[in-house]
């Protein structure tokens, strides 16, 4: 026993209780405490069986990720699991909350498993770029079969207690008092002289695995596995469970686990795990910051964005006023909402009754006076400052004191919007990413006068609706879109210099982006960017560089706006999203290049990659320098959740640390000298230059 693991006896049943907040992670103290408590129980002649349970919100949630990278300290987790399994007295795990990773492996080392009806079990190691490293790949296939085990380990998703019981992963599901019912269950085991079920004793029949199963599994999961390091090792470890004896299989699992542990992919994914949680920690906010009600929401603008945003709240049971200029506009918006939800009904994700209940939560109105009692209003109309200001003036007149007034603007100055109200402290930016009911990222734009209370309230609301909230200061494009500009700019310039669209897209796809910048433009609509450039040229805030956006602007002028018009940079067959290179566009590019005197040349994949990615990093460094983002890892979370930056590379700033800020700075200087810096595109961020000279990393800030 020790300060986190306690023992007591209930008659002939010994209870080992782990109490190590917040999630009973298997720190060294917990591992050591379990081994000591088990030894005590084994030596106690009055104890005939043992229940292993946890205090607090959950059963063990896994190995302590904070210890990774530190010198391992005995007892190591596989030894702890083996000690439980070797116990001559039955050990029963009593699971509540989530038994995850090493936590579920501990439960697999026990002879029986009892779970509360709301509990879940899982092996999410793959999400950290790992494989289960304490016998999970060897015991789970022996318990539920190879196919179920491989699916569960590869997905990393937890499964509910009842389903786990159906699969044989849990022996008994209880509705009420977990400890009492587990003690009763254990007493019955003793009365019935139930066997000590040790999974290590089971040998899997190789014939139970269908011919070519592993190759078919690889094929079926190719998209999900693309670029990741751990999935292939998961398959190898499970194969070892089938083809080797337990001891050799455990040795093989250990080898593969160590490979994953030291892989750049796992280091990146563990960075992302903590970065996502750090993003929720906002300067000035404490757990005592008062929160406001958010029991009712209103959306001003019921277009694609407004409808998608509204769904986030309705899906959590929050009523939403849908406000637009007329009933026809609202009906168009509601039709999109209905079809989105109906897709869920068709896929069996929700019942008709649930669909009907959801639709009742939408309250259409064209009358601002109906918003008098609403807690939160989100404006989601098109990017026109005058229109937004008019809406906020009207909201300021009708909304109750304390109502939060938010704008979904993706680029405009939130302070300018707040200034037209009498309550700038209640104004905040809530920048959702399209499709707003799907994308996890929510940029929370903190105006100069946004109050801590409003900030704390919307941060909590973000988590409630399943978003990852990241706070941004006010600047053009906030964090994500400001960084996107350089990425898109360079892709367009490289077209004029001779790179083919399909080469640019291939390079960025192979890097791990969901699609390349050119294809992404065609998907989103290249007219969107053209409008922003036009507005900024009008305001004089856009580089006076004719090349920037030239190809896209020409195509938009020809009516080629992307997939939605059947042609953009690529052309698209009717009903297909397959991007087809178009010689007509290639000719246009060459003619424009010739007109501008840009000689065509071969661009290497390396140049394409660094000219797209390094501007992201450079702009990210400027954003940090200006205090627009609180920390480098926040920028990583924005790009992973808003733009699909590959999580196994950790985000742009983590990737910069992986490559080395010094190398990136030197390459930016080379581009400044070779490509020219007339418009400041290759002006290095002072912070990047400083990190390079100090040989430090963004993670050190
Ligand atoms: N180790 C260390 N800290 C952890 C942790 C862990 N495994 N899990 C959570 N925390 C911290 C987290 O950083 C946060 O800290 C607080 O707990 C609350 O977490 C050998 C190798 C359990 C579902 O991958 O999925 O076992 O910010 O905000 O939303 O095979 O945490 O408050 O200071 O997420 O209620 C496998 C990871 C590890 C589970 C709870 N296990 N955790 O979610 O709270 S690898 C996992 C989660 C492994 C073995 C392998 C979630 C949760 P702070 P939270 P939550």
The level of helicity is 40-55%
Main sheet properties: 8 strands, mixed
Distance between the termini: 39 Å
Task: Indicate the structural class.
Answer: alpha/beta
Give a count of the beta strands, DSSP E runs of length 2 or more: 17
Tell me which ligands are bound: (2S,3S)-3-hydroxy-2-methylbutanoyl-COA
The number of helical runs is: 29
CATH topology of the largest domain: 2-enoyl-CoA Hydratase, Chain A, domain 1
The unreliable regions are none
Q: Which whole number gives the mean pLDDT?
A: 95
Radius of gyration: 28 Å
Q: What is the CATH class designation of the largest domain? A: Alpha Beta
CATH homology group of the largest domain? 2-enoyl-CoA Hydratase, Chain A, domain 1
Question: How many distinct domains?
Answer: 3
Tell me about this structure.
The protein folds into three domains: 257 residues, 2-enoyl-CoA Hydratase, Chain A, domain 1; 176 residues, Rossmann fold, CATH 3.40.50.720; 190 residues, N-(1-d-carboxylethyl)-l-norvaline Dehydrogenase, domain 2, CATH 1.10.1040. It contains 29 helices and 17 strands. An eight-stranded mixed β-sheet has the order 12-11-10-13-14-15-16-17, sandwiched between helices. It has a six-stranded mixed β-sheet with strand order 1-2-3-4-6-9, sandwiched between helices. α19 runs antiparallel to α25. The longest helix has 21 residues. The two termini are 39 Å apart. The mean pLDDT is 95. (2S,3S)-3-hydroxy-2-methylbutanoyl-COA (T1G) binds next to β5 and α3.
């Amino acid at each position: 026993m020790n300060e986190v693991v306690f023992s007591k006896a209930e008659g002939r049943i010994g209870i080992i209780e782990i109490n190590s907040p917040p999630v009973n992670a298997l720190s060294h103290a917990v591992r050591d405490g379990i081994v000591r408590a088990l030894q005590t129980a084994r030596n106690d002649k009055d104890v005939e069986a043992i229940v292993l349970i946890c205090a607090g919100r959950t059963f063990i949630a896994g190995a302590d990720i904070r210890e990774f990278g530190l010198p391992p300290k005995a007892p190591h987790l596989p030894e702890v699991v083996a000690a439980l399994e070797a116990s001559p007295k039955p050990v029963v795990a009593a699971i509540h909350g989530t038994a995850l990773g090493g936590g579920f492996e501990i439960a697999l080392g026990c002879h029986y498993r009892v779970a509360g009806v709301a509990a879940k079990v899982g092996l999410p190691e793959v999400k950290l770029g790992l494989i289960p490293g304490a016998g999970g790949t060897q015991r789970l296939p022996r318990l539920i079969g190879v196919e179920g085990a491989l699916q569960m380990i590869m997905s990393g998703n937890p499964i509910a207690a009842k389903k786990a019981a159906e699969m044989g992963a849990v022996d008994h599901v209880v509705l009420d008092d977990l400890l009492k019912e587990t003690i009763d269950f254990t007493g019955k085991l003793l009365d019935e002289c139930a066997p000590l079920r040790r999974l290590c004793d089971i040998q899997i029949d190789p014939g139970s695995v269908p011919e070519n199963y592993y190759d078919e599994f690889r094929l079926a999961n190719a998209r999900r596995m693309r670029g990741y390091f751990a999935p292939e090792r998961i398959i190898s470890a499970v194969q070892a469970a089938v083809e080797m004896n337990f001891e050799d299989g455990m040795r093989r699992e250990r080898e593969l686990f160590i490979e994953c542990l030291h892989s750049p992919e796992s280091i990146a994914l563990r960075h992302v795990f903590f970065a996502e949680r750090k993003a929720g920690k906002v300067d000035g906010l404490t757990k005592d910051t008062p929160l406001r009600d958010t029991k009712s929401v209103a959306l001003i603008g019921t277009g694609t964005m407004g409808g998608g945003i509204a769904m986030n709240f309705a899906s959590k049971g929050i009523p939403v006023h849908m406000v637009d200029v007329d009933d026809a506009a609202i009906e168009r918006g509601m039709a999109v909402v209905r079809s989105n939800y109906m897709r869920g009904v068709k896929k069996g994700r929700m019942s008709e009754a649930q669909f009907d209940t959801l639709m009742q939560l939408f309250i259409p109105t064209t009358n601002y006076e109906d918003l008098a009692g609403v807690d939160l209003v989100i404006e989601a109309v098109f990017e026109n400052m005058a229109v937004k200001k008019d809406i906020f003036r009207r909201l300021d007149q009708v909304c109750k004191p304390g109502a939060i007034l938010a704008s979904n603007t993706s680029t405009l100055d939130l302070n300018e919007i707040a200034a037209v109200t009498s309550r700038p402290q209640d104004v905040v930016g809530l920048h959702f990413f399209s499709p707003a009911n799907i994308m996890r990222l929510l940029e929370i734009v903190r105006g100069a006068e946004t109050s801590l209370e409003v900030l704390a309230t919307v941060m909590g609301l973000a988590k409630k609706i399943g978003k990852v909230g990241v706070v941004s200061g006010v600047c053009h494009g906030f964090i994500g879109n400001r960084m996107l500009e350089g990425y898109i700019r360079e892709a367009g310039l490289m077209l004029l210099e001779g790179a083919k669209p399909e080469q640019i897209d291939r390079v960025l796809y192979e890097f791990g982006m969901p699609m390349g910048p050119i294809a992404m433009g065609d998907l989103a609509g290249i007219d969107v960017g053209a409008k922003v450039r036009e507005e900024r040229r009008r305001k004089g805030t856009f580089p006076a560089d004719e090349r920037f956006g030239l190809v896209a602007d020409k195509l938009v002028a020809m009516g080629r706006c992307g997939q939605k018009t059947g042609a953009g940079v690529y052309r698209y067959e009717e009903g297909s999203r397959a991007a087809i290179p178009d010689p007509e566009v290639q000719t246009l590019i060459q003619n424009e290049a010739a007109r501008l005197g840009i000689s065509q040349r071969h661009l290497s994949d390396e140049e394409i990659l660094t000219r797209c990615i390094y501007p992201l990093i450079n702009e990210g460094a400027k954003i940090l320098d200006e205090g627009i983002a609180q920390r480098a890892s926040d920028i990583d979370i924005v790009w992973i959740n808003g733009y699909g930056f590959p999580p196994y590379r950790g985000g742009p700033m983590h990737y910069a640390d992986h490559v080395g800020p010094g190398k990136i700075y030197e390459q930016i200087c080379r581009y400044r000298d070779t490509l020219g810096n007339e418009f400041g595109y290759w002006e290095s961020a002072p912070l990047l230059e400083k990190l390079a000279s100090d040989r430090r990393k963004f993670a050190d800030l």
